[in-house]
Structures are given as C-alpha cells and as structure tokens.
Amino acid sequence: MTEPSVFTRILRGEIPAEILAETENVFVIRDIAPQAPLHLLVIPKSGDYRDVTELAAGDPALLAEMVAIAKRVAIDYGDGDFRLVFNTGAGAGQTVFHVHAHVLGGGLAEGSLGG
Ligand code: 5GP
User: How far is the CA of 55 from the centre of ligand 1 (A)?
Assistant: First the structure.
C-alpha cells in the first residue's frame, strides 16, 4: 500500500491547513510556500490520479470541476484573474504526486510564463 499524500493527510486533519473552499470532490488550501501574492492549491479529494494527464484521461469531469473551482476562488480571494499550473513530473518541479492545480494571481501581468 502506498503512503497517503500530504494532501490526503491534510484532508484527514492529520496536518493542519485551513480549507478555503470545498465541494464533494475537491478542496482548496493556501500553498505553504507561496510563489505569488495569491497562491492556492485546488486538490481532488481522491488521491487516485498522480498528475493532470492521468486525471484528464481518467476523469475529465473532475478536471473541469477543478478549473471551475479555481475560477471561483480566484474571484473570492483575488481579483479574478489567475494562472493555472499543473507541474507534471519531477523534472518539471512536481513534488507531490497527488494531482493538484496551482492557482497563481496578483501582479503577474508583466511576468513571463512561469513568473
Ligand atoms: P508541486 O511541487 O508538486 O507542484 O506542488 C506541491 C505544493 O505543495 C508545493 O508548492 C508546496 O509548497 C505545497 N505543500 C507541500 N506541503 C504542504 C503542506 O503541508 N501544506 C500546504 N498548505 N502546502 C504544502
């Protein structure tokens, strides 16, 4: 059996984090090491998918729900504009292999892709 991810442990209450928004399938927290003035993580409650490519193939409706929730929290916690990032693979900076979207916002307009 594989170890539960840090996000599963947060969902279970084993690691503290404020849940900013939640649906039946998805929850949102602040990133512990923010890379932008607004830096949220949109995370499926299920840890079944390691990355966005697996999620898109296995449950495209859940991926669409993540995008919809990203928009909602970008409005609720920022100015509504946001960058949506899925690091995919260790070489691209993925460190948690439980799919999640980074919602980045605030002062990004003049930055190049990736800030
Ligand atoms: P990745 O590098 O896999 O794309 O993103 C994982 C993100 O999870 C990182 O940006 C990291 O800062 C964040 N993170 C890791 N552990 C924790 C934690 O315990 N709490 C919160 N809120 N974020 C975490």
Answer: 19
**Which tokens go with 84?**
């949506």
In the chain, the domains with their CATH numbers are 6-105 (3.30.428.10)
Specify the ligand 1 atom closest to the Cα of 87: 4
Residues 48-105: pLDDT tens digits?
999 999 999 999 999 999 999 999 999 999 999 999 999 999 999 999 999 999 999 9
Any ligand 1 atom below 6 A from CB of 31: yes
- 53 with 86: CB under 8 angstroms? no
Is a pLDDT exceeding 60 seen at residue 46?
Answer: yes
Q: Which residues are catalytic?
A: 100
